[in-house]
Input
Amino acid sequence: MAFPRSDVAAPPAGAEQVTPVTVKIVVAGGFSVGKTTFIGSISDIEPLSTEAAMTEHSLGVDDAGGVSDRKTSTTVAMDFGRIELPGDLWLYLFGTPGQDRFHFMWDDLVTGAIGAVVLVDTERLEACFDAVDYFEARQIPFVLAVNCFDGVAKHGLDDVRAALGVRPEVPVFYTDARNRQATKQALITVVTLAMTRMQG
Amino acid sequence: MTEPSIPEPQERRAHAHDLYEDESVEEARVVRPYALTRGRTRPGRSDLPLEALVRRVTGGDDSASTTERRRILELAGNGILSVAELSAHLSLPLGVVRVLVGDLADDGLLVVHSGSSTSAPPATNLKVLESVLNGISSL
Output
């Protein structure tokens, strides 16, 4: 091995520094539903984007009519932000990659997460089906935040609830991804739900 | 009469199958960024969460220095930050950063604060959630 393992770590620089506790909330929803806007409305840092490179291995028919074995490299981008809370608590907000085919990456995001905010665009309700299915199946606390583009609510919340068929305990409410107060309220709702779930 | 040649598609399929044998699966998935990690796609510390915080150890000597290792150490030297932030600031894929951070931690140059794998994540602690709730409310 070129790099021998060392189990004895040197003391960290400035050991007296307090190390923050990190928690995270996942922000999901369809492509361009406003996830990054939502994150940016409350994040202390400009939303950052991180990439995960992956290889897609596919068997297909090539131009010459034979079966080809192709590997292509793709990158998946995830946007995220950070909020520093009192008491050395850092809350990260991670946006899920928009495309359904990158669901496997969600596992990474939701591990250890408090819960999820699913942003809903009532004009494209189907765009959030995947997220709802995913969180329901894994019993991850989630809320449905209906993003009102241009401040206009086009559909009633009961209609959205009925259309998505979510359980009664799942909060459904309007939000405005650009508005810090609305985003704050959405986060409060998901944390409260997670706490209720834990106490129940 | 010549022997009919083995049909090409079958041959290729067999090849593809070989690539998925346990031993060679890593190699099959090598993509360019992983040249930086010497072909590894999984960090030694597979439990390294995206939000794991990383801090540089002062006075460490990076004998195996590469540009990427140096950049990570530089950035982590400016203050504590997460694996996800390192990835974003350095424009390196998350998987690559995880592997390199794992190496640097093994070499005693970085300290990773991710909670031990035996302890429950903070999000499962009611007290932590209360603090989060109060914190968000006070924003």
